[in-house]
Design brief:
mainly alpha
């Protein structure tokens, strides 16, 4: 499930970044409005994370074979994946909304800088979040 977590974080973070970059480019948003952006993107992130996590729990519980779980409860696996996904999507969406403003504050081009920086952060944090949460829930480490 780790690729799903990384991909969901990357997709939601990139979408948030794209919207903010567009707003900065058209003058709809000023860099001083970062608190407004943070508040909005945080709320959107929580809604997205909840919806995606709920779908993932349903997918795991409905379509997974309980005999191939390595001795772990299917409910526990579903919950650990949902929590990791929730954290990843929330973090990456919020970060995607704030990185363009931060780039602009440092007089850098957000359209050039944000995509590779966000992709790197989301990929690295996605693996860390996944393994940390799964290890915690399943008691592996």
């Amino acid at each position: 499930y780790m690729p799903v977590i990384a991909a969901a974080g990357g997709n939601t973070g990139t979408q948030a970044a794209t919207l903010v970059i567009r707003a900065l480019a058209t003058g709809e948003l000023k860099k001083r409005q970062w608190v407004k952006v943070f508040w909005k993107e945080s709320r959107v992130a929580l809604c997205l994370a909840f919806a995606i996590s709920l779908v993932m729990v349903g997918r795991i519980l409905l379509f997974s074979d309980g005999s191939t779980t390595g001795g772990f409860e299917l409910n526990t696996i579903a919950m650990s994946i949902a929590v990791a996904l929730f954290i990843q999507v929330t973090m990456s969406t919020t970060l995607g909304g704030l990185l363009p403003i931060l780039a602009r504050a440092f007089k850098l081009d957000p359209a050039v800088l944000v995509s590779p920086v966000l992709a790197s952060i989301v990929d690295i944090s996605g693996m860390w979040i996944y393994f940390t949460v799964v290890n915690y829930f399943l008691g592996i480490a």
